[in-house]
Amino acid sequence: MEYSYSYVPNADEFGALGRREITAFQKWFLSTLDDRMNVLRERVRSFPVYETWAGDFSLDSLEELSGWCCDRAIESFKHSHRVVLDSFGVWMEINVGTYISLVLLHNNDGVKWFFDKTRKSSIDYGQPTVGPFEGAFGEIYRNLMRMTGVAILRMMDGRYGRDGLILCYDMCINPVPFKGADLE
Fold it and tell me: Full-prediction pTM beyond 0.85?
């Protein structure tokens, strides 16, 4: 697997990796966080209106980043007339997803990184997830990269607005129970 700041979270590619390779990816990923977030800050601040974005892992900074992502998603859709992530969209999916993960880690006690190294059948096997969060059937871990990709696509097609990333954050903190699930 090729390591890059815009790797594609491909379940088949990760599924082919063993525990040793997943551990190597985990070490690489975690070692890039400071640099990755500095690159994100520079990128966001290079756009008018966002020059003073704090990028300090606060909820306010996430709200502003959500507006920036929505602007980029709408811009991409207007340019291509397609609801698909281009190379910049994939870069946003991974790096903005990482940022949301860090906002969750900084603002919620007990939240930590988790890389599943045992369940190869899981769509998130080997990939960076955060948690644990309460789910309908116990503790769950969330892949914010995947969630961010979906949010960006929904911003492109108009189903999400400027608060799309806040919705991702809220889905982790306040999960919606499955309809009809007996939760008592």
Answer: yes
